[in-house]
Amino acid sequence: MYRTSATGYKSKITIYECDDCSSCKFKPKCTKAAGNRRMQVSKTFVKKRQISLENITSSKGILLRVNRSIQVEGAFGVLKNDYQFNRFLTHGKSSVKTEFILLCFAYNINKLHSKIQNERCRMHLHKIKSA
Asked: Which InterPro entries does the annotation name (predicted)?
């Protein structure tokens, strides 16, 4: 069987259903359905999730996650403290997205300006890799 997501992505799913849940004492905690418990599983998703888990738990993945968390926390700290950004001024998904993109542009321009002023251009944090 195939399922189509809200974004239009089609995935092949397998449906598992219990034979008879009527006498199970865990049914109220397991499902609210009138019939039996049903589960839909995408085997492709399970495989991709396993690959992702292997990637992030490898030594390289751990190093990248540590560096990323440090970088992101610093950026949000600058936005909140230095720019005094406490809340979005607009409402709605697209308006907030636009406001956040403008905030990111401002952050990156200030960062670039600082690099130029301190003569730190063409200096890389990591070794450049090419394909």
From this structure: Tnp_DDE_dom
